[in-house]
Amino acid sequence: MKNEVLDMDVEEVIRRLISNRGEAFFVNTTVKVVSVERGIREGDRWSLGYITAGNIKHKEEVKMEFRVNLWGKFSPLVNELAEGDILNIRKGLAKNFPFGDRVFPQINCDEKYGSEVNIEYERERIVVDGTNVAWVAKKEGKPNIDNIEILRLELEKDGYVPIIIVDASLRHNVPESDKERFEKWIEEEKVIQAPAQVRADDAILKFANDRGLRVVSNDTFRDYEEVYPWVKDKGKRIPFNIIGSQAILYFK
């Protein structure tokens, strides 16, 4: 494998891999997200997220799908990606994964290769304070996860990609009848659970701050105004109501 990095269109990368089964080379390229594998596989000292990607060209006859593996620090990106997003990859390792008598083209992005991955979002991301949402219009005096689903569907209908973050304790507080469903949401990364000992507010605001995203919450986050002055901006925090099965969002 050569250390030279080639600037190549996806179509060129895939055709070269198909033609040379054992070859591996570094590339700078741009891919379009076709589908995302929710959840991250983790081992003793590694983590892996992956997507199915394709050529950014919109020609049916040029339709090519392959896998992009996101190793290590890049693996959490699977929680942010959605169909149609564009990934700009620098120094990704292009190689085949052999299985039986077939080979499957892949591009591997890993910090140890010096890879860089930048995202161009097709739809705006928005962070949702899932715990705050669940405690509105309670169910049996406990947090109501139906609220989270109602709000998620409303945001998606409006063209957003919601990133829902909840407290680690929420799973223990929901009604017994909802626990299995909520556990599945966590397992499938439908909601992102803040690590134990980390307040969801800390995780939400850091995530939103690092990416310049707006936050859906009825919490004013006054305790965070010194760290994140932008929380005082009414356009950055979106209040809401849940009335029956309808979510109302108050965008500024």
**What's the overall geometry?**
elongated
The total domain count is 2
Mean pLDDT: 91
% residues in beta strands: 25-35%
Q: Give the low-pLDDT segments.
A: none
Helix content: 10-25%
In brief, what are we looking at here?
This protein is 22% helix and 34% strand.
What features would you highlight for this structure?
single chain, 252 residues, alpha/beta, OB fold (Dihydrolipoamide Acetyltransferase, E2P), Rossmann fold, five-stranded mixed beta barrel, 22% helix, 34% strand
List the SSEs and their pairings:
Layout: E1 5-7, H1 10-19, E2 24-36, E3 41-42, E4 47-54, E5 65-71, E6 86-99, E7 102-109, E8 116-120, E9 125-129, H2 130-134, H3 146-157, E10 161-166, H4 170-173, H5 176-187, E11 192-193, H6 200-211, E12 214-216, E13 237-238, E14 240-243, E15 246-249
Parallel strand pairs: 1-2, 5-7, 9-10, 9-12, 10-11, 12-13
Antiparallel strand pairs: 2-4, 2-6, 3-4, 4-5, 6-7, 6-8, 14-15
Task: Explain how this protein is built.
The chain has 252 residues and is of the alpha/beta class. It folds into 2 domains: 5-120, OB fold (Dihydrolipoamide Acetyltransferase, E2P), CATH 2.40.50.140; 125-249, Rossmann fold. It has helices at residues 10-19, 130-134, 146-157, 170-173, 176-187, 200-211, and strands at 5-7, 24-36, 41-42, 47-54, 65-71, 86-99, 102-109, 116-120, 125-129, 161-166, 192-193, 214-216, 237-238, 240-243, 246-249. The protein has a 5-stranded mixed beta barrel. Strands 11-10-9-12-13 form a 5-stranded parallel beta sheet, sandwiched between helices. It has a two-stranded antiparallel sheet with strand order 14-15. A hairpin with a 4-residue loop joins strand 3 and strand 4. It is elongated, with a radius of gyration of 21 Å. The termini are far apart. The relative contact order is 0.12.
